[in-house]
Amino acid sequence: MSNYQGSCLCGAVTFSIKGQFDSFYLCYCSHCQKDSGSAHAANLFSQSAVLHWNSGLDAVTTFNLPGSRHSKSFCKHCGSAVPGSEIPGVLMVPAGSLDCEIDIIPTARIFTARQHSWVQSINNSREYAELPDDSADE
C-alpha cells in the first residue's frame, strides 16, 4: 500500500491518499484543456484508494459541467485542482496536486484527436532546468 501527500498552491488544502492508482491518463479533450489551461490534464484514477482531507475541506469546491461527466474540484482561494470525481466509486487525483513522486507512468494519452497541433513539437523545444534568464534567447 502506498501513501501519497498533496496540497493546493496556497497551502489551504492538504490531503493524503492511501492505496494504489489504477490508471494515469493524459487527457487532451477540450474540457480538460479549458480547465487545466494547458495542452492536457494529467489525472490519476483509483477505485480502491482512500482520500483523507488533512486541512481545508471547507475551501474545496467542485464544478460539474452540465450534460457531461466532467468535473473539477479545486481550492476556492487559489484555484488549484484537488482530488474529486463525478464518476461514482472512482477517485480522480490531479497528478500535479501531489507533493511526492508517484510510482506509475502514464497509462495512455486520450482524446488525442483533439490535441493542438503544437503538441507534436514539444519534444523538439529547448529545455531549461529552471526559468531561463533573458540572455538565454540571444
Task: List descriptors.
138 residues; mainly beta; Metal Binding Protein, Guanine Nucleotide Exchange Factor, Chain A; 3-stranded antiparallel sheet; 10 strands; 5% helix
Task: Write up what this structure looks like.
The chain has 1 helix and 10 strands. The chain has one helix at 30-36, and strands at residues 3-7, 14-18, 23-27, 41-46, 50-55, 60-64, 71-75, 81-82, 91-94, 108-110. With 138 residues, it is mainly β. The termini are far apart. The model has no long low-confidence stretch (mean pLDDT 91). Keywords: Lyase, Metal-binding, Zinc.
CATH fold field value: Metal Binding Protein, Guanine Nucleotide Exchange Factor, Chain A
| Overall pLDDT metric | 91
CATH class: Mainly Beta
Strand percentage: 25-35%
Compute the separation of the termini in Å. Answer: 49 Å
In the CATH classification, which architecture applies? Beta Complex
Poorly predicted runs are none
Short précis:
With 138 residues, this protein is mainly beta. It is 5% helix and 33% strand.
Outline the secondary-structure elements.
Blueprint: E1 3-7, E2 14-18, E3 23-27, H1 30-36, E4 41-46, E5 50-55, E6 60-64, E7 71-75, E8 81-82, E9 91-94, E10 108-110
